[in-house]
Amino acid sequence: MSLTVVTDSAACLPPALAEAHGIVVVPLHTVDADDDAPTTTARPSVAELTDAYRLAAQHGDEVLALHVTASLSGTVENARLAARELAAQGGTVTVLDSGASGGALGLAALAAAEADDVRRGAARARESVARSRLFFLVQDLSHLRRGGRIDRATAFAGGAWAYVPS
């Protein structure tokens, strides 16, 4: 049996590295807002994911879809819909909420791609994520609050801690 891994661009895998490991990368979309709002991302559509899974199925017997954590994106939700659509057509895709993003997701995809089957690939991905830690800093919390990632009270409390009078 052979396994093909599909991930998304939140994995931050350089194209040459993804290609060398046979990993299919589905791009997340950037959405430019007005001058006051930051650029945001949007999940791939169900159709885009379905097409990516079909492509992956041409390269392996099994497909493991390893996407950015559902707590940050709706990509996993669309991935499950795409997998159901393919299942209705006779295809099989295993969707795994990675619980990660960024480099941790990329490392998990690379680890999974070394496996021979979907069960071992998912186990390797979970193990990689369990060993990873991802930290990020933001200049302020207002964009996270406006995007619904944190609530107003958390943004206020975090802003109060960050305030340093000059």
Put the structure in a nutshell.
The chain is α/β, with parallel strands linked by helices. The protein is built from seven helices and six strands; from the N terminus they run βαβββαβαβαααα.
* Class from secondary-structure proportions: alpha/beta
Instruction: Kindly give the count of domains.
Output: 2
What oligomeric state is this? single chain
**SSE string, helices as H and strands as E:** EHEEEHEHEHHHH
Mean pLDDT: 86
**What gross morphology would you assign?**
globular
Annotated CATH architecture of the largest domain: 3-Layer(aba) Sandwich
How large a portion of the residues is in β-strands, by DSSP E? 15-25%
SSE layout and pairings?
Layout: E1 3-8, H1 15-20, E2 24-26, E3 29-31, E4 40-42, H2 46-59, E5 62-67, H3 75-88, E6 93-97, H4 102-113, H5 118-131, H6 142-146, H7 152-162
Parallel strand pairs: 1-2, 1-5, 5-6
Antiparallel strand pairs: 3-4
Helix pairs in contact: 2-3, 4-5
Give structural notes.
The chain is α/β, with parallel strands linked by helices. The chain folds into 2 domains: 131 residues, Rossmann fold, CATH 3.40.50; 31 residues, no CATH class. Helix content is 46%, strand content 16%. It has a 4-stranded parallel sheet with strand order 2-1-5-6, sandwiched between helices. Strands 3-4 form a two-stranded antiparallel ribbon.
